[in-house]
UniProtKB/TrEMBL annotation:
CDD domains: TPP_PYR_E1-PDHc-beta_like. Transmembrane segments: none annotated. SUPFAM superfamilies: Thiamin diphosphate-binding fold (THDP-binding), TK C-terminal domain-like. Gene3D superfamilies: 3.40.50.920, 3.40.50.970. Pfam families: Transket_pyr (PF02779), Transketolase_C (PF02780). Residues 7-182 form the Transketolase-like pyrimidine-binding domain. It comes from Amycolatopsis regifaucium. Keywords: Oxidoreductase, Thiamine pyrophosphate. SMART domains: Transket_pyr. It comes from the Bacteria. GO terms for molecular function: magnesium ion binding; oxidoreductase activity. This is 2-oxoisovalerate dehydrogenase. InterPro entries: THDP-binding, Transketo_C/PFOR_II, Transketolase-like_Pyr-bd, Transketolase_C.
Length: 330
């Protein structure tokens, strides 16, 4: 039986958290201002009111303490969901994430599980100050023992947060903050439907001229570029990665063998990044199918700029279309 609701990405995550908490009393939500305020983006709005202060915890401003406490809770059988208020604030908790969260399951030969979800609003486009618009996902995707995913739409937001919470592995859940409350991103979500597997990428628009692979906030840019390219007679196939570690590149390989061209799109800087890994893997697997080198459209290899310059920093529709033209001219 279907139950369709038209939701923004932010509301979909809220409902996904709510359903996970209803189904399992061991699920806890914790972070800075997540309780009474409902989070700075209001993603946890109403949860403390409905589930109480012992299940929705307002923590001190101390990311290392948030993650360290979550480790102890996980050892005791709870499933903590930690919110990092902005991605640039995650680094005080970096040691706990890479040295404890990522390794305890392996170090104990599976005796101690780490069912921790770390929610990370990430990316630019909100006109924020320093440390509020970064894209550190490649750092965590490189760490064995961690799994990393990113939603780009309301349907995935609703289901993926629940799937992450049910996982016995620690998962970093990167959320495209500039799309949280976008009316343009509202979608019909069947809250009683069957979700796609968590660690699978997906073709979200079919095409034959070139492949564009993206994740998180960049998926919307890729889809907008595909719409614009269609007016010029070019058919772009768009793939939403969804899972960043482990990478599911089989749909990308299949697409590139069809189109012969690949553009990898991300807001993160290009140097030693996920787009670098995608380019290397596609070259290994699809070398004889490629009609042009794999090209990338990314942020620049600089610290994130002041807000008044971010529109020049972030990959946009024009940069994607220009790169498609470069690929076709090869």
């Amino acid at each position: 039986m279907s139950d369709l609701q038209k939701l923004t990405i932010g509301k979909a995550i809220n409902l996904g958290l709510r359903r996970a908490m209803e189904e399992n009393p061991k699920v806890l939500v914790m972070g800075e201002d997540v309780g009474k305020l409902g989070g700075v983006f209001r993603i946890t709005d109403g949860l403390q009111k409905d589930f109480g202060e012992q299940r929705v915890l307002d923590t001190p401003l101390a990311e290392s303490g948030i993650i360290g406490t979550a480790v102890g809770l996980a050892v005791r059988g709870f499933r903590p969901v930690c919110e990092i208020q902005f991605e640039g604030f995650i680094f005080p908790g970096f040691d706990q994430i890479v040295s404890q969260v990522a390794k305890l399951h392996y170090r104990t030969q599976g005796k101690v599980k780490m069912p921790i979800v770390i929610r990370v609003p990430f990316g630019g486009g909100i006109g924020a100050v320093e440390h509020h618009s970064e894209s550190p996902e490649s750092l965590f995707s490189h760490v064995p023992g961690l799994k990393v995913v990113s939603c780009s739409n309301a349907v995935d937001a609703y289901w993926m947060i629940q799937q992450a919470i049910k996982s016995d592995d620690p998962i970093l859940f990167f959320e495209p903050k500039k799309l949280y409350h976008s009316g343009a991103m509202k979608a019909e979500v069947d809250t009683e439907g069957t979700p796609d597997p968590l660690f699978k990428s997906r073709v979200v628009r079919e095409g034959t001229t070139a492949t564009v692979v993206a994740y998180g906030p960049s998926v919307k840019v890729a889809l907008d570029a595909a719409t614009a390219a269609a007016d010029e007679g070019k058919s772009l196939e768009v793939i939403d990665l969804r899972t960043l570690s482990p990478l599911d590149l089989d749909p990308v390989f299949e697409s590139v063998r069809k189109t012969g061209r690949l553009i990898a799109l991300s807001e993160a800087p290009s140097e030693t990044s996920l787009t670098s890994e995608i380019a290397a893997r596609v070259q290994q697997e699809c070398f004889y199918s490629l009609e042009a080198p794999v090209l990338r459209v990314t942020g620049f290899d600089t610290p994130y700029p002041p807000a008044k310059l971010e529109e020049h920093y972030l990959p946009d529709l024009d940069r994607v279309l220009h790169t498609v033209d470069r690929s076709l001219a090869w």
